[in-house]
Amino acid sequence: MAERRGNPIFEHCVFALVPSKGLQEAQISQLTSTLEDHAGEIVEQKRDGKFPLDRITHIISTTSDFPQYSNARNKMINIVNHDWVTQSLLRNKQAPTRPFTPDPNLIFSNVVICCADIPQGDKDAVIGAVLAMGGQETNALTKQTTHICALTVDHPKCQSAIEKGLKCKIVLPHWFDDCLKLGKRIDERPYTLPDPEIHRLNPEDNLPVPPSEKILGASSPRPETFPLSTDSPRRLDVFQDKTVMISEDLDIGSRLRKVIEDLIVGGSGSITSSVHNADIFVCHWREGRDYIIASRAKIDVGNLSWLYHLITHNEWTSPLRKLLHYPLPRGGIKGFQDFRITLSNYGGEARTYLENLVEACGGEFTKSMKQDNTHLITARKSSEKYTAATEWNIHIINHLWIEESYAKCEIQTLTDPRYSHFPPRTNLGEVIGQTEFDERVLRSLYYPKDPTPSPKDPKSLKRSAMREKDRNLSSARNIEENTSMDGQDDDEEEVEEEIIKSKKPIAKPRSRGSTGAQLSTPAAKGRRVSAGKENDTPSSTRSAKDKALSTIHGLANDMALYEKEKKRKGPVWGGERAANKIDLERSSSPATKPKADEEYSGDEIRGAKRQKTGLPPIEIRLMITGYTGWSSNAQKQDSDKKKLRDLGIHIVEDPKVCTHLAAPDMVRTKKFLCALASGPTVVSTDFIEACVKNGEIPNANDFALKDAPNEKKFKLKLKDIVIRAKANKRSLLRRVPIYCTQDIPNGPDTFKAIVEANGGTFNVYRGKPILKKTNPDEDEVGAEPVYLITGQKPTEKKLWEGFTKNSKEANMIPRIVTTDWLLDTAMSQQHKWNESYLAEGQ
Question: Where is composition skewed (Polar residues) in this entry (predicted)?
């Protein structure tokens, strides 16, 4: 008996089903059977995860975030979610595809609207907007209706929906209006009848900060911690049959690099050091030869945060989908350098994300707001900062402005109404992280189309090569640009050279038979040579070489003076000390570090092999406090730092980035306490001397700091402190408001650094009321403590009464404490409280 099948609804349709969290294997299996039962054809994924797009008519996916999405759209392939199949079966014919698209820009794609008692003009506007943004409209109420647009619930359609228990939402037309103004779909709840929140509450009334699920794992371009335990790494299918290149500009240690590489290889992937062999390229900056080659070749290019996201979720996502998953522009976005930006009404990951986005744009982020701030980015029109900004004429915008400025690589106009629209009972943090890059913008600015002609046109190739030769090379300029080894022009020159090499043979330069050795100038490095005759070089090139030689000879006296100065000894600045410092800075700076295939010796002769130099990758970022070995001996300090860097140890001043902390004992210094919050490996300062003396990095555990007297004094174990610090992740004092008097001993800046290193909120208290019952910038509920750190000066004691009164009015518990409270809390890495911390007289 022939197998029974349904109507051939999907005849002549060829489907690809994209697995994801929203479309699991069990669903795919069921859909495959259904489609085949109705004459559809299914194509399988290739081993590399791709589909043969030339054969496919429909792709079923719950997300637009899959590798072939852009190519499929360019080929006009229908991309729909699985609800399209259900609707087609219900209609007994193929349903329209547009309402079922996973395109995130079509914000009403799964909306089926039915209008009730709204005026005809408003009705037409709402229906038109829904249809334009991917939704559908129905005049009759059905089970497929998702939204009823109404002014009250008195209309028969609304009553029918309530009586029948339909799942559709009855919303005011204001919801559609606000969604369109923002270009984002916001929560319907404040607009839901019969008792909409926008009519019941005031815009400034308290509103909880929403979770920021969209930016989990994408709030920072450089994650502080590795996402998985390295003890028992799991297998990662996301790297199967993929070749990954990890750029040196990520500046990660060799141990972490090995862990990552082992995970990739363990997941049937591979590692390469050549971008030409890569399927994935991971780097930090949008610059350099490898970045441009990878981007032009449409290789997936992302940063370390994106790589960690792949490892964490074991699922592919485009690095263009999240703004901080893509490499950063060095120097930020033009114009942002003049901006001082602060935030209000964003919390948790959203706040961290926006702070990092401000810095990635090149602006200055400030936690507090002063009159010299230029912009306030806020999620709603309600906060002390918002009130002050209106009085001080500071620009007030929502986060869409900075997201789209970063995505479009230029400052967006503040007059766009989308950036100043704030729905009355919505915290816009709920739509944060939905802005994506437009690859066309990135291409036009950072890796424009290679001007080299196609290899299909050999005549054009030859003409192009000849034009290269005929250019009158300004050798002095070329020497300066190439020997500096940090110019973008050099990178683009090498990219073009690499591409031409891959398209046609390059003839080797032939000696001209001169009696003396000739200098090989950088101008010659960047020149293309015709695929024809080797000696077919115009006379202008000869002239350029002569000019290059003349330029180098003209610099000979300066070079000789520099070498002589380097040899001069003595304690004063200059001589050997200055030269060593300059050389060290040049070799360690990312902006000036030579690429291996760009390095030239000043007197390199033609045909001589280039020497590869450079510093080893940084394995340890060391912060030092209390070390006396360099006291009054700046020359030894410079020399030792250079030796340490040659071993892969970089001395840092920023506690956020340190991996190791060196100290003679457990000290309550600002450096020690700030660095401790990062959970570093804490070593004795003997570790420094051992590295310098032996010329190698010893096992840090052999130099672990041991300080029994202070452990007894503080009633703490150092190893327990570090464990707690790692668990706290610099968030020990998160959401804890801490204030300090202006006249505190050692100054407010010391305590500010310690508080902020532990994730707290810090301000100087000068007697002016600063607390409100509802604090929009913090997610505080109920009576929580608020701290004032103080000394015993009369000017400080005068502030106590006002602080206590203001705190109680704000429904908070005032705690006026000595500096010991903060120092003990930071040292122990746990909340410590007892009455003994209260200031005398409290």
Answer: 473-486, 512-521
